[in-house]
């Protein structure tokens, strides 16, 4: 397993263009030591992280995972195409030793990330079971000027609409809907609600988006 950062980046970019999934997974396991089981890694997807554990999951084409963070995808989790997951290498430099950056990404079972989203992994991002990061161009930030919180936590069975923004320390409860273009800046631990606006607030309680979809179809 190679330790040199520049060499790892070069190797990962070569592996990304290998024509078959079996070979890509085999090379990532052999050369990088990643734990990959029954998973798909799409063409032109680059993974250069501290550790990766992929269990019966799918990553589509042209995604980038770069930086010194831990990456876990649980069973049946799925990432579509052209997303960026990155942690700047600066977090492990000596001048930042006084700040603890947790540097991890967890996608729980059956979670879904669609396309063209951005995830900052200086801190921790957790996406709950059955949760959808839908649409395009949402951003998830775990560090920033003056911010002492370094996590973004999204509960189970949530729906995150297009072009949403998550600030460090953001929390979403379970079975929540975050409306398109919302800006999440704080802890919303209430379950089954609609969150919307800039900055976001709770617009409706006792609302479960999956039930609302089924009611609309049957009406």
Please explain how this structure is put together:
- The chain is of the alpha/beta class and 219 residues long.
- It has a single domain, classed as UDP N-Acetylglucosamine Acyltransferase, domain 1 (3 Solenoid), CATH 2.160.10.
- 15% of the residues lie in helices and 35% in strands.
- It has three helices and 24 strands.
- A nine-stranded mixed β-sheet has the order 2-5-8-11-14-17-20-23-24. The protein has an eight-stranded parallel β-sheet with strand order 1-4-7-10-13-16-19-22, with helices on one face.
- A hairpin with a 2-residue loop joins strand 23 and strand 24.
- The longest helix is centred in the N-terminal third of the chain and has 12 residues.
- The C terminus is likely disordered.
Number of E-state strands: 24
> Largest sheet, if any?
9 strands, mixed
Spatial gap, N to C terminus? 57 Å
Strand content: 25-35%
Give a short synopsis of this structure.
The protein is an alpha/beta fold and about 220 residues long. It is built from 3 helices and 24 strands. α1 (about 5-15) runs antiparallel to α2.
Could you outline the blueprint of secondary structure elements for this entry?
Layout: H1 5-15, H2 21-32, E1 35-37, E2 40-41, E3 46-48, E4 51-55, E5 58-59, E6 64-66, E7 70-73, E8 78-79, E9 84-86, E10 104-107, E11 112-115, E12 118-120, E13 124-127, E14 132-136, E15 139-140, E16 151-154, E17 159-160, E18 165-166, E19 171-172, E20 177-178, E21 183-184, E22 187-188, E23 193-197, E24 200-205, H3 209-218
Parallel strand pairs: 1-4, 2-5, 3-6, 4-7, 5-8, 6-9, 7-10, 8-11, 9-12, 10-13, 11-14, 12-15, 13-16, 14-17, 15-18, 16-19, 17-20, 18-21, 19-22, 20-23
Antiparallel strand pairs: 23-24
Helix pairs in contact: 1-2
């Amino acid at each position: 397993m190679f330790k040199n950062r520049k060499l790892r980046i070069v190797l990962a970019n070569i592996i990304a263009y290998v024509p078959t999934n079996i070979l890509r997974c085999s090379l990532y396991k052999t050369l990088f030591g990643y734990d990959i089981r029954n998973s798909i890694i799409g063409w032109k997807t680059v993974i250069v992280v501290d550790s990766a554990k992929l269990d019966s999951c799918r990553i589509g084409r042209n995604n980038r995972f770069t930086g010194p963070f831990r990456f876990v995808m649980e069973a049946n989790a799925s990432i579509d195409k052209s997303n960026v997951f990155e942690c700047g290498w600066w977090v492990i430099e000596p001048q930042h030793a006084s700040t603890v950056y947790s540097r991890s990404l967890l996608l729980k079972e059956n979670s879904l990330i669609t396309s063209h989203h951005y995830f900052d992994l200086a801190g921790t991002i957790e996406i709950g079971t059955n949760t959808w990061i839908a649409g395009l161009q949402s951003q998830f930030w775990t560090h920033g000027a003056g911010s002492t919180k370094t996590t973004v936590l999204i509960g189970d069975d949530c729906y995150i609409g297009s072009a949403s923004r998550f600030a460090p320390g953001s929390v979403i409860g379970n079975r929540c809907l975050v409306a398109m273009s919302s800006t999440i800046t704080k802890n919303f631990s209430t379950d089954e609600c609609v969150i919307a606006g800039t900055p976001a607030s709770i617009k409706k309680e006792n609302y479960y988006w999956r039930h609302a979809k089924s009611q609309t179809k049957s009406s």
